[in-house]
Specification:
Length: about 350
């Protein structure tokens, strides 16, 4: 057996790290550098590309398939010069199992760093646009999009009693601080939070990132024990669902008492009234007016800072059913873990 064949079988059939194979070879008196094996495998990769492409096609044509991100992080070479790690994706069908390199998830600079320009800056309306443009409050300037106003931020800090001393934003002899928490393996969130940290640092705030595992992150946001947290907002395609889960004061438990939603503990009686009106509205005009008032709250009171549109991925086949969410008809998220699935079931038809 050649060294190349043995290294392939040992790595992919035996599931053993190459360094262990090299150690075994050294015991036999064969000292081979790791770079030699890696270089050989790299030269072999084009030979397997046709087989890999065929497996991807078979997976895409399967009647049933499932896809999700794995915890295995890889480095990406992208047009945006940032060091970004992202998760490989696993596609599981009836017979083939395939891995695919990540397509990264993506306000402008933050969104670019998070997703390498793949997705767009988010507005402050609370709506995902253009998907939900029929609900957009027409009086919102620039459809809810805002631009960075560093001078305005500095003026607001000065009004609150802060002064800049030696590049630090100070009050009462202490520097302004902020910690931002998110799961350490959510690479797009970490990339976005890193840009936020850099911009806060530039105006003198001592900003830090907390990168726990997801269970510790979930415990922090549910208990309200955080300065700031990166998370997801909306996307169900239904304004009531999105605003209710994020703003309803019934979820606003005291800090250290877990809650399932409204992690920032926002309370506003006018919001609760608008949610009640929206829930019971039977005509389009009433629904629109209630939604418009909720968008105004999102834009003016800023209970949540909406930065960029994050990707939500799904996999489906039109072999048996059609009418799935798509770029031309993005009526809801293509996901299985929330009530979007119920919306999908009301749209799909037999092929």
């Amino acid at each position: 057996m050649s060294g190349g064949v043995e290294s392939l079988l040992d790595k992919f059939a035996g599931h053993r790290p190459t360094e262990r194979l090299l150690a075994q070879w050294r015991w036999r008196g064969l000292d081979v550098a790791a770079g030699t094996v890696a270089g050989g495998l790299e030269r072999l990769e084009p030979l397997f590309q046709p087989l890999y492409d065929a497996l991807l096609l078979r997976t895409a044509g399967a009647a049933l398939a499932q896809a999700d991100a794995t915890p295995w992080l890889v480095f990406l070479t992208t047009a945006v010069p940032v060091g970004l790690r992202s998760s490989s994706w696993l596609f599981l069908a009836q017979d083939p199992v395939t891995f695919r390199p990540p397509r990264t998830h993506t306000r402008r600079t933050v969104g670019t760093k998070a997703g390498n320009g793949y997705l767009e800056q988010g507005g402050r309306s609370g709506l995902i646009l253009p998907n939900m443009k029929q609900w957009l409050e027409p009086s919102l300037p620039n459809q809810g999009l805002v631009t960075q106003d560093s001078a305005g931020a500095q003026a607001a800090f000065a009004q609150a009693g802060y002064t800049t001393q030696g590049g630090k934003l100070m009050k009462g002899g202490r520097q302004a601080t902020m910690s931002i928490v998110m799961p350490g393996n959510f690479s797009d969130w970490v990339a976005a939070a890193t840009e936020v940290k850099n911009e806060l640092t530039a105006i003198g705030i001592n900003a830090t990132l907390e990168l726990p595992q997801y269970p510790q992150y979930s415990q922090a946001i549910q208990g309200g024990t955080f300065d700031a947290a990166i998370g997801g907002f909306g996307g169900s395609g239904d304004p009531y669902t999105d605003f209710d889960l994020s703003l309803n004061s019934s979820f606003a438990t005291p800090v250290n008492k877990p809650t399932a939603n409204n992690f920032q503990r926002f309370k506003d009686p006018s919001v609760d009234q608008a949610l009640t009106t929206l829930a019971s509205a039977t005509d389009d005009t009433s629904k629109l007016q209630a939604t418009y008032s909720l968008e105004q709250v999102m834009f003016t009171k800023i209970p949540i800072v909406l930065m960029y549109y994050g990707g939500s991925w799904g996999l489906f086949t039109t072999k048996n059913w059609t009418g799935w969410p798509s770029a031309s008809n993005p009526y809801t998220l293509p996901t299985l873990y929330n009530n979007s699935l119920l919306t999908v079931l009301t749209h799909i038809t037999k092929a």
